[in-house]
Design a protein that fits this description.
The structure holds three protein chains of three kinds. Chain B is α/β, with parallel strands linked by helices. Chain B is built from 13 helices and ten strands. Classes of the chains: A alpha/beta, B alpha/beta, C mainly alpha.
C-alpha cells in the first residue's frame, strides 16, 4: 500500500504568487525510508506540511494510507502521519517530558491508562525512558528532538515525516536522531520521510528524492543519485565529501566505484596501490 | 592583533547551587593572520571562550582588583595569574575601553540573521558604524562603508540597500548580518558556527566568503565549529575544547593525525582522516594535510608509483 | 542556560509534590488568609512552623527557599525601615526630627517583615513543588464554574502553561540578541530613560519577530499532534483527591483554626 501519495499536487502560499509545488506526483510505499533532498526553498518543507493536512493543496489530490485527505479525514491523516519539525525549542507544549509526550494522545481523547502506556512505549522507542520526569528545558538539542519524536509516536502513527529535524543539531544530536529514525523504520516498520540537506543522512535511506523548484528532479538509490554529480550541482546541491573524492579519483582513471562508505573506498584504494 | 589567554577560568551562576564551570584554566594563543578553528561539543566552553574576546563576558571583578599577589600559605604556590590580552587591550585591567575593543574584534553569533532589525538593509548594516564612530558619520561616509561591506560579502549595493532585510532569502540575510559586523573593519573576526543551518551550497559560499574576508578585510579569523571537514579544509590552526579545557592546539595537518584521541573525546574526525586511518589499517600510508585536494593528489601519486596510469588529476 | 527562578519547578519526588494542585492552590489562599489574620507572634510562629514542615516534607533545600526571599529583600527592608521611622509608639528609643524609633515600631516592622517573607516563601513553594502543567490544570479545574458562562477556561489554562514554558526561552534569547547588538556597539547602559528605551529597539524587534516565528511553529506542531481546542480532550494527569490530600487539608484547616483561636484567646499583641 502507498503510505503517502501525491497526485498532480500544486500549492502556493499566496494567490497569484508563484507555485512552491507544481503538479507534483510523489508517493511513498508503506515501510519505506525515503530521504528528500533539496536546497533551501526547493519546496521540500511544504511537502511535509501538505502530507498531514497542515496545508491544503490548490490542485491535485493527496491520499494517506489509501484514504483521500479531505476535511473529514484530516484527523485520521494526522494520526497516521506524524510530523517532527526543525526547531527543538518550538515543538514542546509542556515543561515536563511525559506531559509533552502525552499532549497528542490527550488531544485524540485516549483513556488515561492507555496514554500512560503510549508514553512508556514512545519514550522507550526513542531511548528517553530515563527522562520521563525531566524538565524539557534542561535537555540537549538531540534529546529535545527525541522527545518531539516521542510526542508524535504517542499517536501511534504509521508514518513519520521529519522536516529538517536535524538542521539545528550538533553532530552528536544528528546521529542520535538518525539512529532513532532508522531503528523505528527497521524495527517498528514505520514509514519514514526524512527531509534534510545533509547528504550523509540520505545514505541510510532506501530511496533518495531530489527536489528543485517544487518538482522532483531526481530519484533513486542514494548511491545512484550521488553518482550524478554534475546534475546535483545544477540543483544547488553539493556532493558529500566522499562523493567528491570518488569522482576525483575516477576522473584520473583510478578504478574505484561510487561507494559512499569510507571503509569500502579505502578497501578499493588499497587494492590499486 | 595577537590574542593571548593564560589560566582563564569562568563559572556561570557563580555562588549558586547551579554554578557550572564553563572554562577551566584555559591557555591559548591566537597569532595575528591565522584562520583559527575552535572545535568542541556543545557545552565544551568554546562559545564562552570566544565571548571573552570582545568583553561580552568579563573576568570577575575580584580578579581585576587583585594586582598585588594574594597571600598564600607556606609551601603553597600562588595561584597562576590570569592573562587575557587582545592586541594592546589588556582585559584584566579595569579601565579597558570595551567600545574600542569591540570595534576591533567583530563577533558574529550563531544564526546572525535573527539580529536584523532595521527597516532597510542599509540602515541595518550601518548600525554598528554609527555606534562605533566618535562623531556622527556623514551620509556619504555611511553609503561608502555600507557599499564596501555589502560588496565584500557578495551582495549588490544598489539592489539591496533599500530592501527590507526580512524579505531576503536565508543565505542573503546571513550575508547582510555579517556585513553589519565587518562594516567597521575589525582586525579580528570571530564567528560562532557561521554555516549552521545552511544548505550545502550556502555552507560552501559562506566558507568562501570567510576566505575572501581573510584575504582582503580582517587579519585574523576565528571560527567555532563542530564540522570537522570545515576545520580540516579551511583552518591554519585549531584548538580542541573539552569540558572547559583546551585539549590541544595544532595545525589540522597534525591534529587529525591524532584521530584516535579525538574519537576518544567523542568528537568526529574529517572524512579524509577516516580514510587515512582505514588505509593505514590496510598497510597503505598516505601522508596528507587532510584537505580533500591533498588527499586525492597523494593517493594518485601512490597509484602512479605502483604503475597506475594517468598523469594526476 | 541561565537559571531562571521564576516559576521554576524543583524536580524531586515528595509528599508535597504529589498533592493535588487544587488543594495546594486553596491551601495557599488559606495560608495567606492565616498570615493576615495572625495578630501576634504566636500566630506567625505557628504559620512559620507549618512552612518549615512543608519545606522539609517537600525536600526543597533551604538555600533554594532563601533564594526566593532574596528577590524581595529590598522590599522587606524598605517597608521595615518606613515602619521603624513612622510608627507611633510609646517607648521611644531614639528620636530625630519627626522620626521616632520606638519599641512598638521595631516590633511591628519585624512582624510585617516576617509576614512578607512567609508570603513569598509559601507562594514560591507552590511553584517549586507543582509543575506548570499541573498548576494550570489546577487553575483550570478550580475555574470550571466559569465555563458555564462561556469563558474558555481550557484555552486560558493552555495559554498560561505555554507562557510559563516559553518565558525562560525568550529570556535566553533576549540575552543573546542583546549580546549580538552589544558586539555591534549598542549601548544599553548609559543615557537618559528615553535614550535607553530607544536603544532597546534593536533588541525588541528581533525578539518580537522570533516570538512570532516560534508561535507559528508551535501552532503547526500542535496542529500536527491533533490539537483542536475542543472539549473532547482527555487528561493524562487526572486530578484526584486522595488520602494524602485529605491529611493536608486537615493540617491546613487546623492551622487556620489555630490562628483564629490564638487571635481570640491570646490577646497580647505581638
Amino acid at each position: 500500500m502507498k503510505a503517502i501519495e501525491f497526485t498532480g499536487v500544486s500549492f502556493r502560499y499566496e494567490e497569484e504568487g508563484p507555485f512552491v509545488i507544481e503538479k507534483l506526483n510523489f508517493s511513498v510505499e508503506e515501510g519505506e525510508f525515503v530521504a528528500v533532498l533539496g536546497h533551501n526553498g526547493s519546496g521540500k518543507s511544504t511537502l511535509a506540511r501538505l502530507a498531514n493536512g497542515l496545508l491544503v493543496p490548490d490542485e491535485g489530490a493527496i491520499s494517506v494510507f489509501g484514504t483521500p485527505l479531505t476535511e473529514k479525514t484530516l484527523f485520521e491523516a494526522r494520526r497516521n502521519v506524524g510530523v517532527v519539525f526543525q526547531n527543538p525549542d518550538n515543538q514542546t507544549v509542556a515543561t515536563i517530558v511525559e506531559d509533552d509526550v502525552a499532549f497528542g494522545a490527550e488531544n485524540v481523547g485516549l483513556k488515561r491508562e492507555e496514554i500512560g502506556e503510549r508514553i512508556e512505549f514512545a519514550l522507550r522507542a526513542v531511548g528517553m525512558e530515563a527522562y520521563r520526569g525531566a524538565t524539557v528545558a534542561r535537555l540537549s538539542g538531540g534529546q529535545k528532538q527525541r522527545v518531539a519524536i516521542a510526542g508524535v509516536l504517542a499517536l501511534k502513527p504509521r508514518a513519520i515525516v521529519l522536516d529538517e529535524s536535524t538542521a539545528m543539531l550538533d553532530p552528536r544530536g544528528r546521529r542520535e536522531i538518525v539512529d532513532v529514525v532508522t531503528r523505528l523504520n527497521k524495527e517498528e516498520g514505520i514509514t519514514v520521510v526524512l527531509i534534510t540537506h545533509f547528504m550523509e543522512e540520505a545514505l541510510l535511506a532506501d530511496r533518495a528524492v531530489v527536489m528543485n523548484r517544487g518538482e522532483i528532479v531526481m530519484q533513486g538509490k542514494p548511491e545512484e543519485i550521488f553518482a550524478r554529480q554534475e546534475e546535483l550541482v545544477t540543483y544547488n546541491l553539493a556532493l558529500p565529501r566522499i562523493g567528491v573524492i570518488c569522482n576525483r579519483l575516477r576522473a584520473a582513471g583510478m578504478p574505484v566505484s561510487n561507494t559512499l562508505s569510507a571503509e569500502q573506498l579505502a578497501e578499493e584504494i588499497a587494492k590499486c596501490v | 592583533m595577537r590574542i593571548v589567554a593564560e589560566h582563564l577560568s569562568y563559572v556561570y551562576n557563580a555562588k549558586s547551587p547551579f554554578a557550572t564551570a564553563a572554562l577551566r584554566d584555559v591557555s591559548l594563543t591566537i597569532e595575528e593572520g591565522e584562520f583559527f578553528g575552535i572545535i568542541g561539543h556543545t557545552g565544551s566552553g568554546k562559545s564562552t571562550f570566544v565571548q571573552h574576546l570582545n568583553g561580552l563576558l568579563r573576568l570577575p571583578s575580584s580578579l581585576k582588583r587583585r594586582k598585588k599577589r594574594p597571600k598564600c600559605k607556606k609551601g603553597e604556590l600562588p595561584p597562576p595569574e590570569t592573562v587575557l590580552r587582545v592586541g594592546e587591550f589588556d582585559l584584566t585591567e579595569k579601565k579597558t575601553d570595551f567600545r574600542a575593543l569591540r570595534k576591533s574584534v567583530g563577533m558574529v553569533f550563531q544564526y546572525p540573521e535573527y539580529q536584523l532589525f532595521a527597516e532597510t538593509v542599509r540602515d541595518d548594516v550601518a548600525f554598528g558604524l554609527k555606534n562605533f564612530s566618535a562623531e556622527k558619520p556623514s551620509e556619504e561616509q555611511i553609503d561608502g562603508a555600507v557599499k564596501a561591506a555589502l560588496e565584500v560579502v557578495g551582495l549588490d549595493y544598489e539592489e539591496m540597500k533599500d530592501k527590507s532585510p526580512f524579505e531576503l532569502s536565508g543565505g542573503q540575510k546571513r550575508r547582510v548580518a555579517i556585513a553589519g559586523v565587518i562594516v567597521t573593519r575589525p582586525e579580528v573576526l570571530v564567528l560562532d558556527e557561521p554555516a549552521a543551518g545552511l544548505d550545502p551550497l550556502g555552507k560552501k559560499e559562506v566558507m568562501e566568503l570567510l576566505h575572501r574576508l581573510h584575504r582582503e578585510w580582517c587579519k585574523t579569523i576565528v571560527i567555532v565549529s563542530h564540522d570537522m571537514d570545515e576545520i580540516s579544509e579551511n583552518c591554519t590552526q585549531a584548538a580542541v575544547f573539552s569540558e572547559g579545557r583546551v585539549v590541544c592546539v595544532l595545525p589540522p595537518k597534525e591534529l587529525f593525525r591524532r584521530a584516535d584521541e579525538l574519537t576518544a573525546l567523542g568528537l568526529d574526525v574529517p572524512l579524509t582522516a577516516k580514510l587515512v586511518s582505514a588505509l593505514a589499517r590496510r598497510g597503505v600510508e598516505v601522508d596528507c594535510d587532510f584537505t580533500t585536494e591533498d588527499f586525492v593528489q597523494n593517493v594518485l601519486a601512490l597509484w602512479q608509483a605502483h604503475g597506475g596510469k594517468g598523469g594526476g588529476a | 542556560m541561565k537559571d531562571v527562578s521564576f516559576g521554576q519547578y524543583y524536580p524531586v519526588s515528595s509528599y508535597v509534590h504529589r498533592l493535588d494542585p487544587r488543594l495546594k492552590l486553596l491551601f495557599l489562599i488559606a495560608y495567606i488568609v492565616a498570615i493576615f489574620l495572625a495578630s501576634n507572634f504566636y500566630g506567625l510562629a505557628a504559620c512559620a512552623g507549618v512552612l518549615v514542615v512543608i519545606v522539609i516534607a517537600a525536600r526543597i533545600p533551604f538555600g533554594k527557599v532563601l533564594r526566593a526571599v532574596r528577590g524581595v529583600v529590598f522590599l522587606v527592608i524598605f517597608t521595615a525601615a518606613l515602619n521603624i521611622l513612622f510608627y507611633n509608639g510609646e517607648t521611644v528609643y531614639a528620636s530625630w526630627w519627626v522620626f521616632d524609633i520606638t519599641k512598638e515600631g521595631l516590633i511591628f516592622s519585624a512582624f510585617l517583615a516576617l509576614r512578607l517573607v512567609l508570603l513569598v516563601v509559601c507562594s514560591s513553594l507552590l511553584t517549586y513543588t507543582t509543575t506548570p502543567v499541573s498548576l494550570t490544570d489546577g487553575v483550570e479545574s478550580l475555574l470550571t464554574p466559569l465555563k458555564w458562562i462561556k469563558i474558555p477556561v481550557h484555552a486560558l489554562a493552555l495559554v498560561m502553561s505555554i507562557a510559563l514554558r516559553f518565558i525562560p526561552i525568550l529570556m535566553d534569547e533576549t540575552e543573546r540578541i542583546k549580546n549580538a547588538q552589544k558586539a555591534r556597539g549598542a549601548d544599553f547602559e548609559s543615557g537618559n530613560l528615553l535614550k535607553r528605551i530607544k536603544a532597546m529597539v534593536p533588541v525588541l524587534v528581533p525578539l518580537l519577530l522570533s516570538a512570532f516565528r516560534r508561535a507559528d511553529e508551535l501552532g503547526d506542531a500542535m496542529d500536527a499532534r491533533c490539537y483542536t481546542g475542543s472539549g473532547k480532550r482527555t487528561k493524562y494527569k487526572k486530578l484526584r483527591f486522595t488520602w494524602r490530600d485529605l491529611i493536608a487539608f486537615l493540617v491546613g484547616a487546623a492551622l487556620i483554626a489555630g490562628v483564629v483561636l490564638m487571635k481570640i484567646y491570646l490577646p497580647a499583641p505581638y
